[in-house]
Amino acid sequence: MFKYFDRHNNLIFSWGLVYQLTRRNIQIRYRGSILGLLWSLVTPILMLAMYTFVFGTILDLRWTDQEGGNPEFATILFSGLIVHAYFSECLHMSVDLIPSNRQYVKKVVFPLTSLTLVVILTAAFQMIVSTFVLLLYLVIVERALVWTVVLIPVAIFPLMLMAMGFSWMIAASAVYFRDLGQLVGLVTLALLFISPVFYETSRLPDVMQPWLYANPITWIIESVRALLFDGKVPSVIEYLIYLVAAFSVSVAGLLLFRKLRPGFSDVI
Amino acid sequence: MSSDSLIEVSGLTKSFRIYPTPVSRVREYLSGGRKTYHTEVKALNAVSFKLSRGETLGLVGPNGSGKSTLLEILCGTTRPSGGQVRVNGRVSALLELGAGFNPEFTGRENIIVNAIIQGISLDAIEKRFDAIAEFADIGEFIDHPVKTYSSGMYVRLAFAAAVGMDPDILVIDEALAVGDIRFQRKCYRYFNQLQSKGTTIIFVTHAVELVRSHCDRAILLNQGNIESSGDPKAVIHDYLELMFSGTNGATEQPSIRELTGREIQSESIQIPRDNCKSRRTYNNDEFRWGNGSAEIFDFLIKSGGVEDPLTFNTGDEVDLRMMVQFNEALSSLIYGLTIRTVDGVMVFGGNTRDAEVLVKDRTQFETADISFRFILNLLPGEYFLSLGVAQDSEVVDNLAIDRRYDLIHLTVIGSSSDLGFASLEMKITDQI
After folding, report:
1. What domain range includes position A18?
2. Given Cys at both, which of A55, B149, B192, B223 links A73, Cβ 3.0 to 4.6 Å?
């Protein structure tokens, strides 16, 4: 078990703790419901079924204007939504992270920085299940699975790093600025529409296209789609750039969190 | 430092910065010290003490005296502003209710998470878990979310978890008062076991009796300063002195004799001021009601040759005098007294009507001096004594004229370790 103590023998970080908390968090979400953990499986299946029916059968939407290519609008939309849902859930969970864990702020010496890790892992659980449902659909219905899907975890990793950075920033700032709760709701909605979830990047005017990449999920969504549907491996250079950016964001987040941490107990 | 002292605190100071709004804290930080928005409040002022292995320290003091802050610093949840704190060994804390429990988690999950925070490995937790669950004794609730617990169950689990971690230092902050008497006894009994194992215990309580019976040492904190420290008995005395001396200095206690001087006896309409408030055992939180046609304006307790004592011993002969001023002529009067526990359970009650004591009818502006004499056969603890004047009229039975509920705070001390309230002076012998 990986642990890290400071010089006062206070626990700073422990995998055991993160593991336990993440497990409980996921269980708590479905505790008391009849289907229990099955909900995390049922929800994406129903959603994918609805998208397929509405966008595929009723509206008969095509993703690209050109003939050929992957015609299935629903699966492409779904893949984008999985990424967005993950990122947005991380941000939402961060807003109330410290106040909802007040028992760990004042009464025990607790490695609060670990809580962010719990957030991104708890949210990752749903993402993994949803992706699994999507892969099953591709295998069973479309019979079109490409080998590059094994690289999806690699593509997702910098997103998690990015989410962790933002999570630290939001969690720490939201203690002082309660307005962040409202703001995050708007921002995540904007992230949804200013991203290639519903449309292709190329549909935008050329001047606007680079701006789309300011959205942290844009590049991830495109890479995931390339790996899922086209069997193409994204550019390694772009990947490294994103990785560096994500790493910088998470370091900045951690620093901000550490800076604001001493005041938590006075405010909460 | 000696190898024996587990805790060494010297010159410990803690001041809090109070900000008008949460945002101004960030503003001040961002301004890099050019602007200040805070006002400083000192919670602890140059506090120093040492604690050795196996010692038990009682911390007493009025609300806001810095007790909790001191404990938080010892546990590491709050950082001191100045001074040195050295803690050698693992601290297990029971700060307020909760002790770091997540309300959504079950008791079992909380114990596991708590143990990990304390740096105990999962294997070690599994081994100890049964013992902890048994001590908490909350049955199947151990697998229910903590938010469904009663406060009693909560504290049971918290205490069990705290001692179950096998700490070197156990810190308890008034939390135990929530548990029922049986569990409290169990905990305090367990203290002895911990002490013999060499665990150092620090606990905060308002129940001074517990300090006397469980602590080797006590510290009285007042406004962040150590007011007195050392022998628990002496410290308790100082504490009660501090709490009940009020604004009038304890030295200038007018006795009833002086107060019932000529001027009151005279026909002047002057109503004597309420002297009850200057008595050392006066309870600020009394509840007073009645129609006001007469007023209880003073009382004086004599016990063991002492006037207006702060503490009483089990078995003391008590002479309680109640002074009543009549604003109207009244007949069919009833004078009464009740003693209640902190929880409001009546321990004793009696009045002149039921005891068929002859009482005089009174004219306007007259004062009465009623004497209650009794033996204080109460076990050590905190009690509240109420005094009352009532009247039986044709229409209303026992009409309240002036009732002062919980007027007097009785702190009974003694060596008895019996349970309950009544001192029956039981002797148990093995006859065969």
Report:
1. 3-267
2. A55
